[in-house]
Design a protein that fits this description.
By secondary structure, the protein is an alpha+beta fold. The chain is 59% helix and 13% strand. The chain contains 7 helices and 5 strands, in the order βαββαβαααααβ. It has a 3-stranded antiparallel sheet, sandwiched between helices. A two-stranded parallel sheet has the order 1-5. It starts with a strand and ends with a strand.
């Protein structure tokens, strides 16, 4: 069965930074679990499952931050969807530590949150589709 492109993009976007995502190459099943670097409590069952997934050739691990390019997506949004003073404000917001929070705060002030979420969803799905095509994993929208 093919993996759901929307479901995978949503999962990758929402997953905590220290977690990992795996896709079963033939069933399209998506599995998320704490990674080795996760600082919280990890259930023994999750640790065992992680070892199993990493050893299996049936599962592919996906790094959400490599696939989705969150910073680059923000930058592209600003350059493609804004101009003038809003562009200058948003470009300034994405510099340095705390960029994601400042970016979102500025989007809210500029009444661009809905535009941003629509753009981000479409872009994430494009990036995930490109990744899946490169791995040969079948997917559906």
């Amino acid at each position: 069965m093919p993996v759901s492109l929307k479901q995978l993009a949503d999962t990758l976007d929402a997953i905590p930074q220290e977690w990992l995502v795996f896709i079963h190459k033939t069933t399209g099943e998506i599995y998320e679990c704490p990674g080795h670097d996760y600082s919280g409590d990890v259930e023994e069952e999750d640790a065992e499952k992680l070892e199993e997934l990493e050893a299996s050739e049936d599962w592919t691990r996906i790094d959400p931050h490599e696939v989705l390019e969150p910073y680059r997506t923000m930058e592209r949004f600003v350059l493609e969807k804004t101009d003038g003073k809003p562009r200058d404000q948003l470009l300034g917001a994405i510099e340095g530590k705390g960029a994601f929070r400042r970016f979102k705060d500025n989007l809210h002030r500029l009444d661009l949150l809905t535009t941003w979420y629509d753009y981000k969803q479409k872009r994430n799905e494009e990036l995930v589709a490109g990744y899946l095509e490169g791995t040969g994993i079948k997917f559906v929208p």
